[in-house]
Amino acid sequence: TPPPAPPKQKTKSAHASWYSDIVPAMVPIALLGSAVYLALQLTQSSLLHEKYLDEARTKVTQLEAQIEKLQSERA
């Protein structure tokens, strides 16, 4: 009886090789990009809230000045 044939080596296609090399390396980059995006979004939200509070304080100060003016005119 002849000896068994050696197992055939499966060669990867060019696309499979490219994906197996690139995709695992891109996972940390995608995670880092997502973290940076979320940090920037949180910063923008925080700055918008701070701007809103500053505008509200300014408006309250103006209204308080109007109230004082009207009360002094009444007296």
Automatic annotation (TrEMBL):
Do the record's keywords include Membrane? yes
Q: What is this protein called?
A: Uncharacterized protein
Its ancestry begins with: Eukaryota, Fungi, Dikarya, Basidiomycota, Agaricomycotina
Keyword set, alphabetical order: Membrane, Transmembrane, Transmembrane helix
List membrane-spanning regions. 22-40
